[in-house]
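Record format v2
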Amino acid sequence: DQQVKQNSPSLSVQEGRISILNCDYTNSMFDYFLWYKKYPAEGPTFLISISSIKDKNEDGRFTVFLNKSAKHLSLHIVPSQPGDSAVYFCAASGTNAGKSTFGDGTTLTVKP
Amino acid sequence: ETGVTQSPTHLIKTRGQQVTLRCSSQSGHNTVSWYQQALGQGPQFIFQYYREEENGRGNFPPRFSGLQFPNYSSELNVNALELDDSALYLCASSLAGLAVHEQYFGPGTRLTVT
Protein backbone atom coordinates (compact mmCIF):
# COMPACT_ATOMS: atom_id res chain seq x y z
CA ASP A 1 0.00 0.00 0.00
CA GLN A 2 1.91 3.01 -1.31
CA GLN A 3 0.83 6.14 0.55
CA VAL A 4 2.62 8.59 -1.77
CA LYS A 5 2.44 8.05 -5.52
CA GLN A 6 4.08 9.74 -8.45
CA ASN A 7 2.34 8.24 -11.44
CA SER A 8 4.59 9.71 -14.14
CA PRO A 9 8.02 8.05 -14.18
CA SER A 10 9.34 10.63 -16.62
CA LEU A 11 8.65 14.06 -18.07
CA SER A 12 10.34 15.87 -20.93
CA VAL A 13 10.01 19.63 -21.34
CA GLN A 14 11.52 22.28 -23.59
CA GLU A 15 13.76 24.89 -21.99
CA GLY A 16 11.80 27.98 -20.97
CA ARG A 17 8.46 26.15 -20.73
CA ILE A 18 6.63 25.08 -17.59
CA SER A 19 7.32 21.72 -15.92
CA ILE A 20 4.49 20.26 -13.85
CA LEU A 21 5.23 17.27 -11.63
CA ASN A 22 2.36 15.55 -9.87
CA CYS A 23 1.97 13.59 -6.67
CA ASP A 24 -0.98 11.85 -4.99
CA TYR A 25 -1.27 10.66 -1.41
CA THR A 26 -3.70 8.56 0.55
CA ASN A 27 -3.08 9.45 4.21
CA SER A 28 -4.95 12.60 5.23
CA MET A 29 -2.91 12.79 8.46
CA PHE A 30 0.25 14.06 6.79
CA ASP A 31 1.29 17.50 8.11
CA TYR A 32 3.87 18.48 5.52
CA PHE A 33 4.64 17.74 1.91
CA LEU A 34 8.11 18.15 0.48
CA TRP A 35 9.83 18.01 -2.87
CA TYR A 36 13.40 16.80 -3.22
CA LYS A 37 15.66 16.89 -6.23
CA LYS A 38 18.26 14.19 -6.83
CA TYR A 39 21.20 14.14 -9.20
CA PRO A 40 23.08 10.89 -9.92
CA ALA A 41 25.63 9.91 -7.25
CA GLU A 42 24.24 12.51 -4.83
CA GLY A 43 21.71 12.37 -2.03
CA PRO A 44 18.31 14.06 -2.37
CA THR A 45 18.36 17.81 -1.86
CA PHE A 46 15.42 19.65 -0.34
CA LEU A 47 13.66 21.92 -2.85
CA ILE A 48 10.40 23.25 -1.39
CA SER A 49 7.76 22.25 1.15
CA ILE A 50 4.17 23.08 2.01
CA SER A 51 2.20 22.73 5.20
CA SER A 52 -1.10 20.87 5.07
CA ILE A 53 -2.88 24.04 6.17
CA LYS A 54 -1.81 25.94 3.06
CA ASP A 55 -2.66 25.49 -0.60
CA LYS A 56 0.28 27.22 -2.24
CA ASN A 57 3.92 27.93 -1.54
CA GLU A 58 6.26 29.75 -3.89
CA ASP A 59 10.04 30.03 -3.95
CA GLY A 60 11.52 31.66 -7.00
CA ARG A 61 10.86 29.50 -10.06
CA PHE A 62 9.31 26.75 -7.93
CA THR A 63 5.69 26.67 -6.75
CA VAL A 64 3.94 23.83 -4.97
CA PHE A 65 0.15 23.56 -4.99
CA LEU A 66 -1.79 21.40 -2.54
CA ASN A 67 -5.36 20.21 -3.13
CA LYS A 68 -6.37 18.48 0.10
CA SER A 69 -9.81 17.41 -1.08
CA ALA A 70 -8.22 15.57 -3.99
CA LYS A 71 -5.18 14.48 -1.95
CA HIS A 72 -3.01 15.83 -4.72
CA LEU A 73 -0.04 18.13 -4.96
CA SER A 74 1.96 19.45 -7.85
CA LEU A 75 5.30 21.16 -8.36
CA HIS A 76 5.50 23.84 -11.04
CA ILE A 77 8.85 24.97 -12.40
CA VAL A 78 8.76 28.13 -14.49
CA PRO A 79 10.78 28.69 -16.59
CA SER A 80 12.40 25.28 -16.85
CA GLN A 81 16.17 25.18 -17.32
CA PRO A 82 18.47 22.36 -18.49
CA GLY A 83 20.05 22.32 -15.00
CA ASP A 84 16.66 21.30 -13.61
CA SER A 85 17.08 17.88 -15.24
CA ALA A 86 17.07 15.44 -12.32
CA VAL A 87 14.86 12.99 -10.45
CA TYR A 88 12.20 14.72 -8.36
CA PHE A 89 10.78 13.01 -5.30
CA CYS A 90 7.58 13.94 -3.55
CA ALA A 91 7.55 13.16 0.19
CA ALA A 92 5.08 13.50 3.03
CA SER A 93 5.58 13.55 6.77
CA GLY A 94 4.21 14.47 10.16
CA THR A 95 6.07 17.15 12.08
CA ASN A 96 9.24 15.04 11.90
CA ALA A 97 10.58 15.21 8.35
CA GLY A 98 13.15 12.60 9.23
CA LYS A 99 10.39 10.00 8.98
CA SER A 100 9.18 10.91 5.53
CA THR A 101 7.27 8.71 3.11
CA PHE A 102 8.54 9.12 -0.44
CA GLY A 103 7.07 8.56 -3.87
CA ASP A 104 9.04 6.67 -6.51
CA GLY A 105 10.19 9.80 -8.29
CA THR A 106 9.75 11.48 -11.67
CA THR A 107 12.73 11.96 -13.97
CA LEU A 108 12.56 15.43 -15.50
CA THR A 109 14.49 16.15 -18.68
CA VAL A 110 14.68 19.76 -19.83
CA LYS A 111 15.82 20.01 -23.44
CA PRO A 112 17.77 23.07 -24.62
CA GLU B 1 30.39 23.46 8.10
CA THR B 2 30.78 19.88 6.88
CA GLY B 3 27.90 18.07 5.19
CA VAL B 4 26.63 14.54 5.71
CA THR B 5 29.16 11.89 4.76
CA GLN B 6 28.71 8.15 4.34
CA SER B 7 31.14 5.27 4.05
CA PRO B 8 31.85 3.17 2.19
CA THR B 9 30.64 4.43 -1.19
CA HIS B 10 30.14 0.97 -2.62
CA LEU B 11 30.06 -2.48 -1.05
CA ILE B 12 29.60 -6.01 -2.34
CA LYS B 13 28.55 -8.75 0.06
CA THR B 14 27.40 -12.33 -0.17
CA ARG B 15 23.97 -13.53 0.92
CA GLY B 16 23.99 -14.45 4.62
CA GLN B 17 26.80 -12.08 5.54
CA GLN B 18 26.58 -9.04 7.79
CA VAL B 19 27.31 -5.44 6.86
CA THR B 20 27.90 -2.15 8.69
CA LEU B 21 27.34 1.21 7.02
CA ARG B 22 28.46 4.47 8.55
CA CYS B 23 27.17 8.02 8.54
CA SER B 24 28.61 11.24 9.90
CA SER B 25 25.93 13.81 10.46
CA GLN B 26 26.18 17.47 9.62
CA SER B 27 27.91 19.53 12.28
CA GLY B 28 25.49 20.41 15.07
CA HIS B 29 22.80 17.94 14.04
CA ASN B 30 21.56 15.49 16.69
CA THR B 31 19.14 13.34 14.67
CA VAL B 32 19.96 10.76 12.01
CA SER B 33 17.50 8.92 9.78
CA TRP B 34 18.29 5.96 7.55
CA TYR B 35 16.51 5.17 4.29
CA GLN B 36 16.72 2.31 1.79
CA GLN B 37 16.29 3.17 -1.86
CA ALA B 38 15.81 0.18 -4.13
CA LEU B 39 16.37 0.60 -7.86
CA GLY B 40 13.57 2.58 -9.49
CA GLN B 41 11.89 3.38 -6.18
CA GLY B 42 11.88 6.21 -3.70
CA PRO B 43 13.70 6.17 -0.36
CA GLN B 44 11.96 4.06 2.27
CA PHE B 45 12.30 5.00 5.94
CA ILE B 46 14.19 2.39 8.01
CA PHE B 47 14.59 4.11 11.39
CA GLN B 48 15.66 7.30 13.11
CA TYR B 49 18.05 7.93 15.99
CA TYR B 50 17.82 10.89 18.33
CA ARG B 51 20.25 11.36 21.20
CA GLU B 52 21.52 7.78 20.84
CA GLU B 53 18.05 6.21 21.09
CA GLU B 54 15.87 4.75 18.32
CA ASN B 55 13.10 7.25 17.64
CA GLY B 56 10.77 5.49 15.26
CA ARG B 57 11.08 2.61 12.84
CA GLY B 58 9.63 1.79 9.43
CA ASN B 59 8.52 -1.59 8.14
CA PHE B 60 11.89 -3.33 8.33
CA PRO B 61 12.74 -6.60 10.14
CA PRO B 62 14.89 -6.70 13.30
CA ARG B 63 17.95 -7.80 11.34
CA PHE B 64 18.19 -4.11 10.42
CA SER B 65 19.64 -2.40 13.49
CA GLY B 66 21.43 0.82 14.24
CA LEU B 67 23.50 2.82 16.63
CA GLN B 68 24.09 6.47 17.28
CA PHE B 69 27.22 7.62 19.04
CA PRO B 70 27.77 10.57 21.42
CA ASN B 71 29.16 12.63 18.52
CA TYR B 72 25.83 11.91 16.69
CA SER B 73 27.43 9.79 13.98
CA SER B 74 25.53 6.61 13.24
CA GLU B 75 25.80 3.05 12.00
CA LEU B 76 23.34 0.86 10.15
CA ASN B 77 23.88 -2.88 10.61
CA VAL B 78 22.20 -5.53 8.51
CA ASN B 79 22.50 -9.20 9.47
CA ALA B 80 21.80 -12.28 7.36
CA LEU B 81 21.89 -10.34 4.11
CA GLU B 82 19.34 -11.22 1.44
CA LEU B 83 19.44 -10.49 -2.28
CA ASP B 84 16.60 -7.96 -1.84
CA ASP B 85 18.79 -5.92 0.49
CA SER B 86 20.68 -4.70 -2.58
CA ALA B 87 19.95 -0.98 -2.64
CA LEU B 88 21.26 2.52 -2.06
CA TYR B 89 21.31 3.29 1.67
CA LEU B 90 20.89 6.94 2.52
CA CYS B 91 21.31 8.68 5.80
CA ALA B 92 19.96 12.11 6.59
CA SER B 93 20.73 14.34 9.53
CA SER B 94 18.69 17.07 11.12
CA LEU B 95 18.44 19.09 14.30
CA ALA B 96 15.36 18.38 16.35
CA GLY B 97 13.22 21.50 16.63
CA LEU B 98 14.31 23.10 13.37
CA ALA B 99 12.05 23.75 10.40
CA VAL B 100 10.56 20.65 8.88
CA HIS B 101 12.64 20.78 5.72
CA GLU B 102 15.97 20.90 7.50
CA GLN B 103 16.98 17.34 6.67
CA TYR B 104 20.26 16.89 4.82
CA PHE B 105 21.09 13.69 2.96
CA GLY B 106 24.43 12.06 2.40
CA PRO B 107 25.42 10.67 -1.01
CA GLY B 108 24.54 7.11 0.02
CA THR B 109 26.20 3.72 0.14
CA ARG B 110 25.47 1.36 -2.74
CA LEU B 111 25.17 -2.19 -1.36
CA THR B 112 25.13 -5.15 -3.71
CA VAL B 113 24.29 -8.60 -2.32
CA THR B 114 25.23 -11.57 -4.50
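Chain A touches chain B at residues 4, 6, 31-32, 34, 36, 41-46, 48-49, 89, 91, 93, 95-105 (CB under 8 Å).
Chain A is about 0% helix and 55% strand.
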